Amino acid sequence: MENYKERVNTLLLVSTLVATVTFAAGFTVPAGYNSSSNSDLGIATMLREKGFHAFIFCDTMAMYSSIIVDVALIWAQLSNLVLALNALTLEVPLLGVALGMMSMAFAAGVFLAVSELRWLSIAVLVMGITFLAILSVLLIPLCIPFTSSNRVLRYVSYYFFYLVILASNS
């Protein structure tokens, strides 16, 4: 039981950090707010931009996903081993969604900030999509319950993870 409590505490810490970051990002939007005295006072300056819509959508999804994970993991800490195991099984994919959405909100915000330079905004989008693909490949084996019994998926995820570790060491 103690091993699962450590896992629950670690996931709770990560999801709380995601909630904190996305909460702050929701109020410090890219390019700020209109401060003129017209009817748009206090409204986000990039409200009509499609990149801003992507930022808000991703940030909101990350925020609410991480809050759900927080609440479920708090319940898992207070109860028995069966509930802790069920919470770990159900909340890891949701935390993966929160992490992915947070990274895409970051990419959308940076894209908006550098949108005047086309080559730089395209580079930011390519990096964000590449990161999301790598994150997905690393998180999908954790989210699929039959991964440990499916030999092919287990080896694919193991070797991809191993390649990422090798690449980061060099």
UniProtKB/TrEMBL annotation:
Pfam families: PGG
Transmembrane segment boundaries: 12-33, 53-76, 88-113, 119-140, 152-169
Keyword Transmembrane annotated: yes
Residue span, PGG domain: 2-112
Cellular compartments annotated: Membrane
Superkingdom: Eukaryota
Identification of the protein by name: PGG domain-containing protein
Organism: Handroanthus impetiginosus
